[in-house]
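Format notes (please read before filing issues)

Several people have asked whether sequences and structure tokens are stored in separate files. They are not. Every record keeps both together, in the order shown below: the sequence lines, then the token lines. Line labels are part of the format and must not be stripped during preprocessing.
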Amino acid sequence: MDRLDQPSSHSGSSLSAVGQDCRQTGDSHGRRLVPWQANRFGDKGSIVSWRISTDTRDERGASAVEFALVVIPLLMVVAGIVNFGVAFANQLSLDNAVRQAARASVVDVTPAPDVGAIVTSEFNPISTSTAPLVDTPGIDSCDGSAFGASLTVTAETTTDFIFPWPLPESVLDDEITLTSEARFQCEFS
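Then the structure lines:
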């Protein structure tokens, strides 16, 4: 029986000396000592045997390769979440601005407010956006309107993504168009 196959209870420094003995022999090219827990037959398992590993594959750098394969899709998912969050926040800001302008137009205020100025002042985008294009189809104000008439305010703007996509523009544009509409019934005629 070889002395490497025998159970060993050496301290850490002695084990490194055993490993050096193994590396100094001429037939141990590409081999190293690894701990081997042989507890198949009901042994207590506190004694660790040492065996020579014949695995000659070098696994250095495998983690770096795996990280490189995973990091690009992971960053694309994170960028997508951030871009969606920014577009959603800009849509909420546009909705609130249009609602504010429509509400200001239906209350009894003289002179009638400028709907476009209200939408532009109330719209606070997170990312760069164009100024909203505001339209009031139908009636512009409630002055002289029929009973039950509604005032509608619509606005449209484009907003840019914070993180550009590594896809061609034919697949996904670098900007998104946001639209909003608010309709309120006139409170006076």
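For reference, the curators noted about this record: Residues 62-106 form the longest helix (45 residues). Strands lie at 32-36, 49-53, 133-135, 150-160, 175-185.
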